[in-house]
Specification:
mainly alpha, Arc Repressor Mutant, subunit A, Tetracycline Repressor, domain 2, globular, DNA-binding
Length: about 230
């Protein structure tokens, strides 16, 4: 691209920024999510992110302050999308055992489909969580899944089918742990043991087993005998 073409592209970007700033912000986040997931926080460069959009480095800095601010925004947006998808399941009207199983199934499927989200979380854990957004920025929106599990667990206790002594946070950990490992460790696991578990058939079996394991952990023995095969 010669200098004249660059000027034309810059003028077009400025016009779009003035007409639809939220769309421009979303484009930057999308490009940054892709590059951060591919190259990590340390490896990704603002110049590369700008090149994937019609934006300049200056515009990225205008929206996000600096590279760390952009990374934090990408993380927050990735978590927000997951929480919104969970809310869209509308589990409040389902029987508690079915609702819990549906949430486990969704988490397994969503993690498998959104590998960029898992990679972003892996990368931030490598950095010991040093770049996470402020606690109130993350905890508030992410508490929606805990409230959802509180509702499911409370209804299960009231129905006499869930055993007492558990917490929604523990249930969230149980669901997340297996679903996360399925993606985060796929490369090394399949290199050592083969890829049988990562075929469509293998993934369907694992998803079913994750749901059944969770229910066997939560249900009373009497309820488990009725609810599970």
């Amino acid at each position: 691209m010669d200098e004249a073409d660059e000027d034309i592209a810059a003028d077009g970007a400025r016009r779009r920024w003035k007409q639809d700033p939220e769309a421009v912000r979303a484009d930057i986040l999308g490009a940054a999510r892709k590059l951060f997931a591919q190259k990590g926080y340390s490896g990704a460069r603002i110049e590369e992110i700008a090149a994937l959009t019609a934006c300049s480095k200056r515009m990225i800095y205008y929206y996000f302050g600096d590279k760390e601010g952009l990374w934090r925004a990408v993380l927050a947006e990735a978590y927000r999308r997951t929480r919104e998808a969970e809310e869209a399941l509308d589990l409040h009207g389902l029987p508690p055992a079915e609702a819990l199983r549906r949430l486990a199934d969704f988490t397994f499927e969503n993690h498998a489909a959104r590998r960029d989200f898992i990679r972003l979380v892996m990368i931030e854990n490598v950095h010991e969580g040093a770049h996470m957004p402020q606690a109130d920025e993350m905890s508030g929106p992410n508490l929606s899944v805990i409230r959802l599990l509180e509702d499911i667990y409370r209804r299960g206790l009231a129905a006499g089918i869930f055993r007492p002594g558990l917490t929604p946070l523990e249930l969230h950990w149980q669901i997340s742990a297996l679903s996360y490992f399925n993606v985060a460790n796929q490369a090394t696991f399949s290199r050592i043991f083969g890829d049988a578990l990562f075929t469509p058939e293998g993934q369907a079996r694992l998803k079913r087993q994750v749901g059944e394991s969770l229910l066997r952990f939560v249900l009373t023995p009497e309820a488990a005998a009725r609810e599970l095969p």
